[in-house]
């Protein structure tokens, strides 16, 4: 039976990606929705992109673009190297591309260019890297950067008083637009856990792969999930984005 599986942030951890796909027993009948941030952190960012391209040739995949993916794309295309990127995993990503030909880089740029800002399925479930600020939904967002940088959607869900009914005027309008919302971007480690976390109708699948956490994959219907080993153990000679 086919499943729809959502995958959280990867951050250059190819070993973790391969491990979690194996643990979830993913087949080519499964639909995979990736929430972004494929690069920046561990040493195999370009190799992660290669793996995702290969995967997309075997089965249905949706790729959302994260903020780190945009950084990488703009470096590959224009040579942009903002200090914030270099300090947050960009150096490791650049090193992973050291031996790539122009043809290989063009292939990756084509892949980055085909990524989505967000995706909505037939059951009115939204998949987006970070969030959106407009109470009218992501399609009405004034600043596209919010798709990749916003944290207020998740903070709103986390802080929401569960006693407030959905028909109350106090209930956040943004949370009423979709049946469920799946995000990455803000590690659940910030709330002291390393597993997919649900607040209101928002599911956060970023389980801290860039730091001391893991890569997670979840069945969006059953909510069963699988996880890799913690990334520092898979890359013992590296720091990732840890201090």
UniProtKB/TrEMBL annotation:
GO terms for molecular function: bis(5'-nucleosyl)-tetraphosphatase (symmetrical) activity; phosphatase activity. It comes from the Bacteria. GO terms for cellular component: cytoplasm. Residues 3-199 form the Calcineurin-like phosphoesterase domain. This is Serine/threonine protein phosphatase. Pfam families: Metallophos. One of its GO terms (biological process) is RNA decapping.
């Amino acid at each position: 039976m086919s499943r729809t599986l959502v995958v959280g942030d990867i951050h250059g951890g190819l070993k973790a990606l391969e491990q979690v796909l194996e643990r979830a027993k993913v087949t080519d009948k499964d639909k995979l929705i990736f929430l972004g941030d494929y690069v920046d952190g561990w040493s195999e960012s370009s190799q992660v992109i290669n793996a995702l391209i290969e995967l997309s040739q075997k089965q249905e995949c949706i790729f959302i673009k994260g903020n780190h993916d945009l950084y990488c794309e703009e470096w590959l295309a224009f040579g942009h190297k903002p200090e914030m990127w270099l300090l947050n995993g960009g150096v490791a990503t650049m090193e992973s591309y050291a031996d790539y030909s122009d043809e290989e880089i063009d292939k990756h740029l084509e892949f980055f260019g085909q990524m989505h800002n967000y995706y909505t399925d037939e059951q009115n479930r939204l998949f987006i890297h970070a969030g959106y600020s407009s109470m009218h939904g992501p399609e009405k967002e004034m600043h596209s950067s919010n798709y990749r940088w916003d944290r207020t959607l998740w903070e709103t869900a986390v802080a929401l008083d569960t006693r407030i009914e959905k028909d109350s005027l106090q209930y956040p309008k943004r949370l009423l637009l979709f049946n469920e919302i799946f995000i990455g971007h803000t590690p659940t480690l910030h709330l002291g856990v390393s597993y997919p976390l649900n607040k209101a109708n928002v599911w956060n699948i970023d389980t801290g792969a860039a730091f001391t956490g893991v890569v997670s994959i979840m069945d969006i219907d059953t909510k069963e999930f699988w996880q890799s080993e913690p990334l520092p153990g898979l890359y013992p000679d590296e720091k990732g984005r840890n201090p």
